[in-house]
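INFO  loader      accepted 1 record
INFO  loader      residues=51
INFO  predictor   begin
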Amino acid sequence: MADDGALSPHETPGHGVGFDEAAARRHPVPEPPEHDHWALLRNTDGSVQRP
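INFO  predictor   done
INFO  writer      dumping tokens
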């Protein structure tokens, strides 16, 4: 929120960015190709796993 050229914090938590979960579900992350070994180091939720 701008106040005379300066930004002031909002009263509500968050970064002020909305996320459309229905739109995200329509575009799932594809499975990595078999030859992409770096992508295989991540789980489907994006967390890193040990090889």
